[in-house]
Amino acid sequence: MVSLKPLHDKEAFIIDMDGVIYHGNTLLPGVQEFVALLRKEEKKFLFLTNSSERAPRELSTKLKRMGLEIGECHFYTSALATASFLKTQCPGGSAYVIGEPGLVNALYEAGFTMNDYNPDYVVFGETRSISYEKIEHAVKLVQNGAKLIGTNSDLTGPTDAGRIMPACRALISPITLTTGVEAYYIGKPNPLIMRHALKHLNVHREAAAIVGDRMDTDIIAGIESELDTVLVLSGVTDLDTMKLFPYRPAYIMKGVGEIPKDEIELIKAV
Questions:
Q1: How many CA atoms lie within 13 Å of 15's alpha carbon, on the beta-carbon side?
Q2: Is 240 in the active site?
Q3: Does the annotation mark 18 as catalytic?
Q4: CATH 3.30.70.1150 holds for 2-50+189-264
Q5: pTM for the predicted model, two decimal places
Q6: CATH of the domain spanning 80-185
Q7: Of 9, 18, 120, 262, which is the active-site residue?
Q8: How is the chain split into domains, by residue range?
């Protein structure tokens, strides 16, 4: 058995959403108990998602529909991290955006203007309204000197129906392959978004843990940022998948419902 006291002693938790808190529009088992523990123990917590489609208010509303009341201040997205980063790099700059309202609004709030003629950046996020014309135009802008930014480096992501769909890095690939220009990706596992999350929580890395379902984003982000890591097997990663990676999480659990326990059964990838 593995004692969870070191994990319970953490001051703050950074938590992925899809595959950890819900699948599609269904809350996962044990989530209510996990959130109740966070509140009872007065832990700081932040839901950190690589998705750039929705704003914190929309994410809060989505969880409310599932029966979980979480304030907007507990959400941080790759769209917000992207906007914050670009604001420091090019204050008052402009961007050509291929993405959903969550990304566009975050850039507006950071002081950026939309520009499809000579922008400072081409910014790419998840979207279902992509077209050949938009890709072609983005290629032209990058060839003319615009810097290419991706909100995250995910190749795939889950749909509400539980299927796998192309995500940001897959969708941006026609631009990178055509221009020969590599995008700079802001979301997990970039330590940049992890620093933003820790700053948002106002804690040092030693006092925080990250909970996620993906080895290639959540767990490696935690390891590279020197946070304790919790892999839950309720999402895209199973034990066979985990064996493919050269690093390991500090804890492996079936789901977040195990976190409130005093100890859990040791799970090993063999």
A1: 23
A2: no
A3: yes
A4: no
A5: 0.93
A6: 3.40.50.1000
A7: 18
A8: 2-50+189-264, 80-185
